[in-house]
Amino acid sequence: MPNKKIRVLGQLILPGETHQLSLNIAKLHRGSTIEVPVIVSRAKESGPTLLLTGGIHGNEINGVEIVRKIISEKYHIPTAGMTICIPVVNVFGFLSQTREFPDGRDLNRVFPGSLRGSLASRFAYHIVKEIVPHIDYCIDFHTGGDSRFNAPQIRIGKNDAESLELAKIFGTRFIITSAKREKSFRETLNKLNKKVLLFEGGKSLNINNEVSKIGLTGTLKVMQQLGIRNFQKEIATLKPLKETTYLVSDSAWIRAKFSGLFHPTIQLGQFVNVGDNLGSLSDPFGYFEKKQKATFAGHIICVNQSPIVNQGDAIVHITKNEAL
User: Fold this and answer.
1) What digits encode the pLDDT tens for the residues 168-211?
2) Cα–Cα–Cα angle for 231, 240, 172, rounded to 5 degrees
3) Does the domain made of 7-243 have the CATH classification 3.90.870.10?
4) CATH, range 253-323
């Protein structure tokens, strides 16, 4: 209801208002408080509430960039419902350009958190208790870890018809259905009956303009579908690619047969057959160079771009079971 009183982090959010709030429940060991900006914008008309989050892993910068763009272009201001944007959830990791919290824990493995737990766990607890109750939907932006570059993809839970429909509207080439990772943000939101699209694209400590464009365009399309705001002109300007969408229910990594320098010869999104060459592995002294071949057929959805790999490292991620 438009007249319903909504308080976020103690701030009354009236219809038609936008507020920048702070989630500041955690301190560093030297006593300084780290404030996490939370931008809340409420329309005069009623509608659903969408949460946009980036940087749950502090070094996954491309997700931060997507949410930043949405705010800087004022796309987050709704004509119906409400948006909550947290561009950098893990400000601690963002400042140090690391994945984890200062306590060494992965924030995305401690949800729903605990009021008396570790620093990361306490932070997760306050997000779940103070932000999540207000939302209906969430788009959570991630990248591949370390040097692993993910093709733009949406990850959803299995047997979730509404999320699948929203994922198709988002418009990535690949939609991955997977079991929910224990104690992840996505698993916690699903248990609370919130719909989540997890966007993966790019790699850590990197901003890729094409990935950003796909993430931005997809978000506007979902916001329009939910009735939060009409973005027909903006979407037309962005000119999203019309690609075949593959629904992927299983995938696996090809691992390095040898330690050494990795020279990939395949491209993200490429289809490979059994026996196709994926690249080569060589020692740094010129004594050997061995081909790395595909052991099963599928599309390439992630490539390890690290020039140096160890035997057994995951180097190429390939779909196994997919449907149009």
Assistant:
1) 999 999 999 987 789 999 999 999 999 999 999 999 999 999 99
2) 105
3) no
4) 2.40.50.100
What is the pairing mode between strands 148-156 and 298-304? antiparallel
Is residue 240 classed exposed, middle or buried when 0-12, 13-18 and 19+ CB atoms within 10 A define those classes?
Answer: middle
What distance lies between CA 196 and its chain's CA centroid?
Answer: 10
Contact 30, 17 (CB under 8 A): no
**Which residues make Cβ contacts (< 8 Å) with residue 32, sequence separation at least 6?**
none
Q: Classify residue 197 as exposed, middle or buried by CB count within 10 Å of its CB (0-12, 13-18, 19+).
A: buried
- Tell me how far apart the alpha carbons of residues 233 and 219 are, in angstroms, rounded to a whole number: 14
Q: Give how far Cα 48 sits from Cα of 60, 80, 92, 166, Å.
A: 27, 8, 30, 14
For residue 87, report the phi and psi dihedrals to the nearest 5 degrees. -60, -40
Q: Which amino acid is at 101?
A: F
| Arithmetic mean of pLDDT, 224-249 | 94
Domain boundaries of the chain, sorted by first residue: 7-243, 253-323
Residues 142 and 57 sit within 8 Å (Cβ to Cβ): yes
Q: Looking at residues 247-259, what average pLDDT do you find?
A: 97
Determine the Cα angle at 306 with ends 272 and 170, to 5°.
Answer: 60
Burial of 6 (0-12, 13-18, 19+ CB in 10 A): middle
